[in-house]
Design goal:
heterodimer, A: 187 residues, mainly alpha, 75% helix, globular, B: 267 residues, alpha+beta
């Protein structure tokens, strides 16, 4: 007899599957999607979507996991730089979603733009604190270009990715709390 | 919860950056990439046409101009093909006379690039040869044209190569008048930055178009004589004596398909 899986554990498994799909797409397809030499950052997008779909606590955990997968796939930066950065992004987006942002898809692209810009700044600060010159080696112009292209990608994809993440996170306390809050606001 | 995650992240960064837990963490990274590599390879091969279509759609104008430039270059190369064999023969004779080590005499492993890194802050590729083929961390990687990078991580059947444009990549190069310098990658893009290593020799006069090769000095990480690139710009910073130059590498990192790993270690 197969033991029953609790809704929260089932949600964790679904989120893990989404994150694994994300890192596979990022590492196999990301380089082919470069615009002006800049690749999209799907793991940052998943952190933003995690915050939007599941609130600050789960958003931080999803961001941390997404960043850790990105860290594992890279060799140039110390393990944990992306995990810390995307953890803070997931938490900040989740907090804003719970306390400030209204429910509704129209606002999500704006969140995607702002969170990407904020995520870039967080990454630069974490990178600088950990002694990594790689993030600033290519100069300010490159950083601005990276921020703009990644922000456009994330703004364009945040609605469907958040919808997927919302389905995956159904059953977690954060997602259920957001759902109840939205229902109260709507009712 | 968030504080715990932040603490875990900071611990990982600290362990990896300080080098104390580096071997363990690199092992975890290697295992992760070893699992991911076959998946990447399969999916990449399947999705490559889609990526090519996308790249072609957004870069059509540039690709058209590059096509014209390449055709012109092909015509020019055909014209010089006949004379190059003669020069090659001469070069081989000179090298044999000088007893210089040369890349042609170093055993190598040919590898296919199975994945191109998608980071915007580093330049690396994954190749389909690893420890089982004799590939080790630190070995130089060359491609048609010259130096392509060096191996930075190895699993049983794959390896990660940092390309010469990676911001962490540095190689010693020979300069005119018995001077040496270092060429460093500057992140995604095409150029490297060359700085002159101060020496008792006269300050070298770098000229645009000059070809730079690896210096191969004692304890160097690369054998001598591997072409690196051609000087694109030269300037002397205010208050400095030594010039600073940018170099366009001979190897176009964005167009790599196959590379040779030199089974070579510093003497």
């Amino acid at each position: 007899m197969v033991p029953a899986v609790s809704p929260a554990n089932a949600a964790r498994l679904r989120i893990a599957a989404v994150l694994l799909c994300g890192i596979v797409v990022q590492t196999t397809f990301g380089a082919d999607l470069r615009i002006g030499g800049v690749a999209p950052d799907f793991m940052l997008l998943l952190a933003v979507a995690g915050g939007l779909a599941a609130g600050p606590g789960a958003g931080a955990f999803i961001g941390f996991s997404a960043g850790l997968l990105a860290d594992l796939s890279l060799t140039a930066t110390p393990l944990g730089v992306y995990a810390l950065s995307w953890c803070l992004v997931g938490f900040a987006v989740g907090w804003a979603r719970l306390h400030v942002l209204p429910e509704g898809r129209p606002v999500q692209p704006l969140v995607g733009l702002a969170a990407t810009a904020g995520g870039m700044i967080v990454l630069l600060v974490v990178g600088a604190l950990s002694g990594q010159g790689a993030f600033t080696a290519a100069g300010k112009t490159w950083l601005v270009r990276v921020g703009m292209v990644e922000a456009v990608w994330n703004a364009a994809l945040v609605i469907p990715v958040t919808a997927v993440m919302r389905r995956a996170a159904r059953g977690t306390s954060g997602a259920d709390r957001l759902g109840r809050t939205d229902a109260l606001v709507a009712g | 919860m968030v504080a715990l995650l932040v603490l875990v992240s900071l611990t990982l960064i600290s362990l990896d950056a300080s080098g104390r837990g580096r071997s363990t963490l690199q092992g975890v990274r290697g295992a992760f990439n070893a699992v991911l590599a076959p998946v990447q390879s399969g999916i990449h091969a399947a999705l490559r046409p889609v990526g090519n279509f996308f790249t072609g759609a957004v870069d059509y104008g540039r690709l058209q101009a590059e096509n014209i430039r390449l055709r012109t270059e092909l015509d020019r190369l055909r014209a010089t093909e006949a004379t190059s064999a003669f020069y090659q023969q001469q070069a081989d004779q000179v090298l044999a006379l000088q007893h210089l080590p040369f890349v042609a005499g170093i055993p190598k492993v040919t590898a296919q690039i199975i994945n191109i890194g998608s980071s915007n802050f580093s330049a690396s590729v994954t190749i389909d040869r690893g420890r089982s083929a004799g590939v080790l961390v630190g070995q130089p990687v060359v491609a048609a044209g010259g130096l392509a990078g060096s191996v930075v991580a190895v699993t049983a059947h794959t390896a990660t190569v940092d390309l010469i444009t990676d911001p962490t990549f540095v190689v010693g190069v020979s300069l005119p008048d018995h001077n040496t310098g270092s060429a460093a990658g500057q992140g995604p893009g095409d150029s490297m930055r060359v700085t002159v290593v101060p020496a008792s020799a006269p300050v070298p006069k770098l000229a645009r178009g000059e070809v730079l090769s690896t210096s191969g000095l004692q304890m160097e990480l690369f054998p001598p004589g591997i072409p690196v690139g051609r000087i694109a710009t030269v300037s002397v910073p205010p208050g400095e004596l030594e010039p600073v130059a940018t170099v366009t590498p001979f190897v176009n990192a964005a167009r790599l398909g196959y590379v040779d790993v030199l089974l070579w270690s510093p003497q």
